[in-house]
C-alpha cells in the first residue's frame, strides 16, 4: 500500500508568504492568505500592496509565477488558480 502525504494549508501559506517577500514590487501584503480546496484543484488568494512606480500587471504576473513555482518545488503540488488582489500602492 502506497503512503499518502497530506499537504497542509499552512505549508502552502508559508510558500506563498516567501514568494511574496521575494517578488520585486510587492511592498506589503495582507497576511490573510486564503487557500480554497475544491475538486477541480487548489486556489490561492493573496492581497498585496505594490510599490509606487512599479508596473502592477508585471508585479502580479511575477507574483503568480513565484507562488506557482515555490509551491510546486516545496510541496510537489500544482495550484489551479492564483488570484492576486492589489489593494493599493505604497
Q: What would your notes on this structure say?
A:
By secondary structure, the chain is α+β, with helices and mostly antiparallel strands. The protein has a single domain, classed as Cation efflux protein, cytoplasmic domain (Alpha-Beta Plaits, 2-Layer Sandwich), CATH 3.30.70. The protein is built from 2 helices and 4 strands; from the N terminus they run αβββαβ. Strands 1, 2, 3 and 4 form a 4-stranded mixed sheet that branches. α2 links the parallel β3 and β4. α1 packs across α2. The termini are far apart. The relative contact order is 0.25.
Features:
90 residues, alpha+beta
N-to-C series of helices and strands: HEEEHE
| Main beta-sheet strand count, sense and barrel state | 4 strands, mixed
CATH top level assignment? Alpha Beta
Rg from C-alpha positions? 14 Å
Helicity range of the residues? Answer: 25-40%
Q: How many structural domains in the coordinates?
A: 1
CATH topology title: Alpha-Beta Plaits
The poorly predicted ranges are: none
Percent strand: 25-35%
Mean pLDDT: 91
**CATH H level: which superfamily?**
Cation efflux protein, cytoplasmic domain
Supply the helix-strand structural class. alpha+beta
Shape: elongated
CATH 2nd-level architecture: 2-Layer Sandwich
The rounded distance between the terminal residues' Cα atoms is: 53 Å
* Count of helical regions: 2
Q: Tell how many strands the DSSP assignment holds.
A: 4
Amino acid at each position: 500500500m502506497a503512503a499518502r502525504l497530506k499537504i497542509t494549508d499552512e505549508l502552502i501559506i508559508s510558500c506563498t508568504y516567501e514568494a511574496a517577500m521575494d517578488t520585486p514590487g510587492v511592498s506589503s501584503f495582507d497576511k490573510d492568505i486564503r487557500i480554497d480546496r475544491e475538486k477541480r484543484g487548489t486556489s490561492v488568494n493573496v492581497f498585496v500592496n505594490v510599490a509606487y512606480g512599479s508596473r502592477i500587471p508585471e508585479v502580479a504576473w511575477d507574483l503568480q509565477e513565484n507562488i506557482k513555482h515555490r509551491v510546486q518545488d516545496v510541496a510537489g503540488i500544482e495550484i489551479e488558480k492564483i488570484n492576486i488582489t492589489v489593494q493599493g500602492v505604497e
